[in-house]
Specification:
572 residues, alpha/beta, Transcription Regulator spoIIAA, 2 domains, 6-stranded mixed beta sheet, two-stranded antiparallel sheet, 22 helices
Length: 572
């Protein structure tokens, strides 16, 4: 029976993010769980304003989804609940499919969570966790910054007491500007006071639950002074008790549109959750099983769908909250879920006095936290090209949409990688004082009289093979003295695809006609295998392939490399 509860490496299947735990650890985590609930409950209520779902669904994301991940995940720190990025993706598409916060809208949100769970499960089955690596840190900073601007702008209407109907950021700005003469002053003053209070307390004492103090104080003031009578809008009454369990209703013709939303959420979940879990596992020197976390994330989203909530994600900010409160395992998160259960059972009534502008103000402070100006400055100082990519991603999120922004982020990350491979570092190597140093690979550059050592910094594939051949032709033709040998340092070339092999064969034929021998050094086993597979090793010759550059130069000096039109057949 014990073996059935462990994987092949002897690790437990269940509660891996909790076990082992002792009494002192349980006490410490319980206190952290209470602190996380105090800080997180106001935030998840605010995330419903982003997602467009009823306020109570925010509490639902801190209930069964948290328990599901604690049961099956491996990360001891990752908090899986409502998150601004996935909530924004959800609202960007669903707001055009059903009235916001309607029963149909909630059902669609549940189906997106269920489809995201299916994608996560498939990712585990086919071991697709590597997809997270295709979202670079650069574009993630830009993406989250864009989400911060978009969400912050979306909250301005409620903070000013204005009716803003559009879901597009530019139109929201226009509507707010047009409505400024009619803003509701008491609503604005209350929202501004809440923003100032939360941001000030966050700066002075980050561990203090400023959002909780703001919510409790606003509820008490609203009930005591009857804010609604003064024109300050309140949230809808909060349904108490536990959520109903069941599959969300959907119609088949809506599935194609929901799949694209779920796919975007899936990519953000994998990237953000994986990055956060890795960071905290590394910081605390703990073992992380990313496959188990994919199962945990899938279970959490399935639980969200079945309990009437929306997509949940691994949250960096909430994970930081529990760590700063002393939590060291998922037991803290289970305590948070217990606190939320008590709120649903016994304290849902007073929440109906919460002003909508206060909730919008809390979301606004969350949005401010997402705008990573410091990160953008660091990127600009270190890599202006990547800074432009980050700013472009942020602009697309704000001007076009969150879903388009995440897709652009992936494309830009991939293009950035392809760009490095397409235009890799190249150099001509020159020996000085027994060491080889690179100089620019420009026509006229030589390693020594009659010798050219060329270094290429990437694999050869269909896109960069032409550049490789053109660079070598330019160096050969521009050599100030006739070349006795051309040496390619292939230390960075691990693979050659079919198209590149054809280009290389043509180049070898051209060099043979010119009477310039072609020598390869530092060839990895994978490259040698590709040379054999493409039958290039026979053309180059075994006696023209060396392990080190020094061996190649010695053979050239001993005239074992001859300027001839043929080479011996080599072993490759």
């Amino acid at each position: 029976m014990r073996e059935n509860l462990q994987d092949r490496k002897g690790r437990p299947w269940l509660f891996r993010g909790i076990l082992p735990i002792d009494r002192s650890g349980a006490t410490r985590d319980a206190l952290a769980g209470f602190a996380l609930a105090a800080m997180n409950i106001p935030q998840v209520l605010g995330y419903t304003r982003i997602a467009g779902t009823p306020v109570v669904t925010g509490l639902y994301t801190l209930l069964l989804p948290v328990v599901a991940f604690a049961l099956l995940g491996s990360s001891r720190y990752l908090v899986v609940a409502a998150d601004s990025a996935t909530a924004a993706i959800l609202a960007a598409r669903l707001s055009g499919m059903a009235p916001v916060a309607s029963e149909h809208y909630v059902a669609l949100a549940g189906m997106v969570a269920l489809l995201a769970a299916a994608f996560l499960l498939l990712a585990r089955i086919f071991e697709l966790g590597f997809l997270a690596d295709f979202l670079s840190q650069t574009v993630l900073v830009g993406f989250l910054t864009g989400v911060g601007f978009q969400v912050g702008i979306a909250m301005l209407g409620e903070m000013l007491g204005l009716n803003v109907s559009s879901n597009r950021t530019v139109e929201q700005i226009v509507q707010v500007a047009r409505g400024l003469p009619h803003l509701h002053v008491p609503t604005l003053c209350l929202a501004a006071a809440m923003v100032a209070f939360v941001l000030t307390l966050r700066r002075v004492s980050p561990r203090m639950p400023g959002s909780l103090f703001a919510v409790v104080g606003a509820i008490a003031a609203s009930a005591g002074f009857d804010f609604s009578r003064h024109g300050i809008a309140l949230i809808e009454p909060l349904a108490g008790g536990f959520p109903s369990i069941g599959l969300p209703y959907f119609s088949a013709h809506e599935i194609p549109a929901l799949i694209s939303v779920a796919a975007s959420c899936f990519l953000v979940i994998v990237a953000q959750s994986s990055a956060t879990a890795r960071a905290y596992a590394s910081r605390h020197r703990q073992t992380l099983d990313e496959n188990a976390d994919l199962i945990g994330l899938a279970a959490a989203n399935a639980a969200a769908a079945l309990s009437g909530a929306f997509v949940v994600n691994g949250s960096p900010t909430q994970t930081a909250m529990v760590e700063s409160s002393g939590g060291r395992s998922q037991f803290a998160h289970l305590v948070t879920a217990g606190v939320v259960a008590l709120v649903l059972l016994f304290f849902s009534g007073p929440i109906r006095y919460l002003p909508r502008c206060v909730l919008a103000a809390i979301v606004f402070t969350i949005a401010v936290g997402l705008i990573d100006l410091r990160g953008l400055r660091e990127i600009r100082s270190e890599s202006p090209g990547e800074f432009r990519l980050a700013v472009t991603t942020a602009a697309v999120v704000v001007l076009i949409g969150v879903e388009q922004g995440i897709l652009l982020a992936i494309v830009l990350s991939l293009l950035r990688h392809v760009g490095h491979s397409y235009r890799p570092h190249t150099a001509v190597l020159v020996e000085e004082a027994g060491l080889w140093r690179p100089i620019p690979a420009v026509p006229g550059a030589l390693s020594a009289p009659g010798l050219l050592v060329f270094q290429f910094g990437a694999d050869l594939f269909y896109a960069n093979a032409g550049r490789f051949a053109d660079d070598l032709r330019g160096l050969v033709e521009g050599a100030p003295t006739p070349l006795n040998c051309l040496v390619v340092d292939a230390g960075a070339i691990t693979n050659i695809d079919y198209s590149a092999a054809r280009v290389l064969r043509e180049l070898l034929d051209e060099l043979r006609r010119r009477g310039v021998p072609f020598v390869v050094v530092h060839a990895e086993p994978s490259l040698l295998a590709d040379l054999r597979r493409h039958r290039l090793s026979d053309v180059i010759g075994a006696d023209h392939i060396f392990d080190t550059l020094r061996q190649a130069v010695a053979a050239i000096d001993e005239r074992r490399i001859h300027t001839t039109g043929t080479t011996s057949v080599g072993k490759g």
